[in-house]
Amino acid sequence: MPVSLPLTFDLSSESEFYTQVSAGIQAAQQANCQFLSLGIALPTVDPLMLLAGLMHVSGESEHFYLEQAGEIVAACGAVATSSVQGHQRFGELQRFSEQTLSRLWAIAPAEPRLFCQFSFWDDTHPNWGVLPRWQVIQRLEQVWLTLNCALETNTPHRLWQDWQLVQRALAQILAEPPPCPPPLAIALPPLTEQYGQFIRRVKHALRLLEEGDIEKLVLAAALTLEQPQGFSWLGTLQNLRQQYTNAYIFSVGQKRQQVFLGASPERLVKIADGVLCADALAGSRPRGQTQQEDQSLRNGLYHSPKERYEHQVIVEFLRQTLQRLGMTCEVPAKPRILELSHIQHLQTLIQAPLPEPIHILQVVAALHPTPAVAGYPAARAQHWLRQLEPFNRNGYAAPLGWVTPTGEGEFIVGIRSAHLQGNYAHLLAGAGIVKGSHPEREWQEILWKFQTMISALA
Ligand SMILES: C=C(O[C@@H]1C=C(C(=O)O)C=C[C@H]1O)C(=O)O
């Protein structure tokens, strides 16, 4: 178990650093720990800039970034990683995180977390977990750095070097803040082919709904954009955080030149202080050009029986799944509206006090994929998605998030996203098809959803 030692020391002195870290190492060795986690308060710095700086000075490409109102967490490098596949993937990463974090000795104010990314399907990539080398958390204007390392003979030196890299990254940011390129004017290519294929798939889904085989199917469409000079990872993230202040801005990557990033409005689950929160999100309309039009679209969304039904399928799924896990949910009687830059949704925030602790990855395993991103009933919907979708979803519509040593944490759903790969950006966006869905309108919804990434790619 991580135990905190109250520790404050002069971080500019190498010998003082060694003395203090050595005390922590001794304590960790006595406790038979394998990893050490050292927390340091940092001056105010933008965690995204520090992440970019750390990736630059260290040459590390593994990273994780999640920004939401009130908290930003960034992680870089890898001290321990695990890649998994198959239908036990959530359980395997749960075991990996439990084993890793239970053998970690934390020196206050370290707040060690283990980061995970999953793919939509259990037989594709990526499914991995990482204890990062550096972790940065910003909360209430305070920034905390956590240095993690394996306990070895040269641990004090490793930690000192990693701390020096942070100093270099900070100095670099101060001397020369990374430029933020303006958004590129990206024109949508003609989507005739995608349009035709999507309409055919929706018609197929409507037949299945008519026959009673399924109640809802969330069909996606794929779009690839090419930028001969390459897309700017940092510029795109900067644009996303400016444009989508009430979404989860995320970026995750294992390999150089391969990044999955986006601005997701959808949280899958959060567990904090013994309370679980899960969000139902489904039912969509665009934003209006004028206040009046916006209001009328909002009313249309709120009062549409089709959208309310589509939304209710998710609420019921969450309630029943969490009930099977032993929880009693508090569910608001009516949804509310979540307004984003290009689109608005019906949203219901569900809460459940935990009668006893449950590991967040056990909940993720039970919830993924929800009817918001796959359909209902789950097995039939997934069967049809495999038949009808000619592309790999990879991390699209899949969970990504972090776990604490006590099994709490937070996972979001990787929608409104793109996979950046060299000069290409691969986008996916989906729409829920239920009885009464109109193929042309569902296509319009796909276009609004693509817009999130198109307007931010830089
Ligand atoms: C599947 C996506 O979004 C999901 C589907 C929605 C819908 O059908 O109304 C709304 C929000 C998300 O739960 C996506 O953005 O790709």
Explain what this protein looks like in three dimensions:
With 458 residues, the chain is an alpha+beta fold. The protein has 2 domains: 162 residues, no CATH class; 263 residues, Anthranilate synthase, CATH 3.60.120.10. The chain contains 11 helices and 21 strands. The chain has a 12-stranded mixed β-sheet with strand order 5-1-9-8-3-2-11-12-20-21-10-17. A 9-stranded antiparallel β-sheet has the order 4-7-6-18-19-13-14-16-15. A hairpin with a 2-residue loop joins strand 2 and strand 3. Helix 5 crosses helix 11. The two termini are 43 Å apart. The relative contact order is 0.16. The N terminus is likely disordered. Bound molecules: the ligand C=C(O[C@@H]1C=C(C(=O)O)C=C[C@H]1O)C(=O)O. The ligand C=C(O[C@@H]1C=C(C(=O)O)C=C[C@H]1O)C(=O)O binds next to strand 14 and strand 21. Pfam families: Chorismate_bind. This is isochorismate synthase.
Entry summary:
With 458 residues, the protein is α+β, with helices and mostly antiparallel strands. 36% of the residues lie in helices and 30% in strands. It folds into two domains: 14-175, no CATH class; 192-454, 4-Layer Sandwich (Anthranilate synthase), CATH 3.60.120.10.
